[in-house]
Design goal:
The complex is a heterodimer.
Chain A (H helix, E strand, L loop, with lengths): L1 H4 L5 H26 L3 H26 L5 H25 L4 H24 L11 H4 L7 H20 L1 H9 L1 H6 L4 H22 L5 H15 L3 H25 L5 H19 L17
Helix pairs in contact in A: 2-7, 2-10, 2-11, 2-12, 3-4, 3-5, 3-10, 3-11, 4-5, 4-10, 7-10, 11-12, 11-13, 12-13
Chain B lengths: L18 E10 L2 E11 L4 E5 L6 H8 L7 E6 L4 H4 L3 E4 L13 H6 L3 H4 L7 H13 L15 H14 L4 E4 L8 H16 L3 E6 L5 H4 L2 E6 L1 E7 H4 L2 H7 L6 H7 L2
Parallel strand pairs in B: 3-7, 3-8, 5-6, 6-7
Antiparallel strand pairs in B: 1-2, 1-4, 8-9
The chains are: A mainly alpha, B alpha/beta.
Amino acid sequence: MLDALLLSAGYNAAVAMIGATLLGIAAGPVGVFMLLRRRALLADAASHATLPGVVLAFLASLWLTGEGRSLPILLLGAGGAAALGVLSVQALQAHSRLSNSTSIAVVLSAGFGLGVMGLSYVQTLPIAGQAGLDQFLVGQTAGMRLSDAYLIAGVAGVLVLTVAAFFKELRLISFDPDFAAAAGWPVQRLDLLANGLLLATVVVGLTSVGLILIVAMLIIPAVTARLWTQKLDRMALLAAILGGVSAYTGAAASAAFHHLPTGATIVLAAGVLFALSLPFAPLSRPRRAPQVLEPPA
Amino acid sequence: MSPQIHLVDRPLSVAQGPLVAHGLSVVYDGKPALWNVDFTAPAGALVGVIGPNGAGKSSFIKATLGLVPWASGWATLLGEAPKHGRARVGYVPQRASVDWDFPASALDVVAMGFYRKLGWLRPVNRRTKDAARECLEQVGMADFADRPIGQLSGGQQQRVFLARALAQDAELYLMDEPFAGVDAASEQVLISALRDLQAAGKTVLVVHHDLQTAPDYFDHALILATRAVASGPMAEVFTAEILQEAYGGRLAPSQLAALAV
């Protein structure tokens, strides 16, 4: 474990750990805005909807190139399917009587069911490479190649820079979308940007955390950060740190004990940081009515 | 019945006044919230938008800002379609429309009034913060600049919203229930801020629910009960007959007597 933490548990493990850490850093701030816009469960629908996309992309890439396990192509399929999942949730809400959470539940379970079916079919095929596909469920960084790590690093970097650049705009539409629209900001396009950040995080998160647990990497560091601060900029920074630390230690644990899936160890690390924060953080206690006394008029 | 001609396709040529609504209707789920409202706000007026619960007061404000779709009619802000005119309008939404547990200080919220001036991607700088602090001072909240908004009282939160609208430095202000649930001290601060705006030549529309204070606070009124029951100078429209019509006869004689109308 100590070897792993010091990045000396082998070249592959080190590459995987750095990839996972960068993802954790990006997921923190993206999760902060997701949480404040009350879209936490939308990420869960998106992530579960990626599985059929991964399977389809695998088959398509096998047919086109003769090799199925090309990470960029698989992630492209995942991204397309996740976007379709989010659009389905929004369409269900707009054109049916289903509530927000019910729409999410329908899309989440239907998408995942479809994906599991596709996965079972692919695994019966007499071809090589399909064995790795189920790693997308709970995450496994052990087989990560350097080119994959570059891809994740690139996406994570773009995510962090985008959040930083649009920080003021994202803060505005998260707090008061009506005021933002009245002041002339294109709220729908900014909303689309925020959803795009969410989808990108989910998709690159498939590689290290896996689709079942990626929502935890968006929520837990953000919630933990909220316990410590009342300032949005500090909350985003803290969530990035917490996400990075969780991913780093989680990936190290997974590298040290090969039978542990990376997604589970990373999310557990984030959960431990949350649990440690609860008794000590200043904002853990339930909210009471504001204790401000007005002078009598 | 003789055919009537409605000027619906070229509203800009006929729009005189900082806020004009013509035949404006808003419909939610097949139920009208606002029906065929004609109204022109006189420049420099302090207008109370008055009416019972569910009379479409908020819908009227949101419709003129283009925040809810129009079922019919049109509106202009400062002579332009809302989409363009609203950038020069100061807006105070209903206090309950946002989550006050949001991680922000009073100063952070007021700074949002300067975002448009800052433009895309430019972060909030020191000069913006200083300007926001001045706006907070105008509503007597300078000492609360760094206080998390969740720890402010209702009246203080309302003052923060007003300070954010002042930061927008607009020609026309639309305020949705700024007096709802505020303490007496905040109410005094708010009303004197409204009068300062009027003295500076601004036009202000305020959704207001308290009939007792309405005649003191506003010089014009738009009385709504889904449709526009009456509009004009306060002395002309704030009559027992018009109020009874707007409130569907639900005002007791003693209530009307107390209003001295």
